Every structure is written in C-alpha cells, then in structure tokens.
Amino acid sequence: MRGDVLVSVRGLQMDDSMEADPIEIITSGKYTKKDNKSFLRFEQFEDDTSVTKNILTFDEKSMELTRRGGSQLHMSFFKDEKTLTNYGTPFGNILVGVDTKKISVDESKDQVHVAVDYALEINYEHMADCKLTVDIRPRAKGAL
User: Is the dihedral of CA 114, 5, 72, 66 positive or negative?
Assistant: First the structure.
C-alpha cells in the first residue's frame, strides 16, 4: 500500500483520577514506505482557519511525530525510553516528556495499524497515561 490513504488517529488520555479524554480525527493523507521505515503525511484542521501539517515516521521499534502549524512539536517514541521535547505554542514553550511503554505495528496488504502506550509529562510532572492508535487504509476513489 502506497499513495493516497484514509487516516484515523485516536488518542486516549487517562489522568490520575481515571478520567478519560478521547479524541479522534479522520482525514486523508499520503503513505510511503522505504527501507522498512513508514512515512505518513496528513493535515489536521484545528478550526476554520488553522491547519496543522503532520508527519508520522515509524517502524517496529520507534515512532516520531512532527507537527507544524499554530504550534510546533516533535515527539519521539522509543520502547522503554523517556524522551523530552519542547512543545512550541503561540504563548511560549512547554517541556513535554514521553515515557513509552509499548509500540506495535501490524501491517497487511490493505491496512496498517500502529499503537503506542505512553506516560505524558508536562514540565516533569506526570499528566496522563495515554494510548495513541493510527489506522491507515487505501483511500477509495471519491473519499475525502
């Protein structure tokens, strides 16, 4: 599978009080694979005027998410490792920590499923345990 795809991104954050905060976006994108590394590009519409461009790069052991738009972010996920990054917002930078617990990639002829479990920290303080899933399928003609 390569080229135009339909992308479903689902995120779930569980805070210390066990309150769940789910999000989901469905959009179109472009998917390629080279040397066992997968690349997914898609846009996310934040409001009527703001567009965030996303690049997701992944393999069996790692995933990286780069977001450009109203805010800037580059998150790295490596199993059993903690990474730090700056989340650039219009109001200033926020230090974000990602402690990755699990990464799985399941790929078939007509679907790719990526799942990541991680703990999220903001300025060294645990904020939530998170699950991120990305499903990629070939885009049907006329869809999105």
Answer: positive
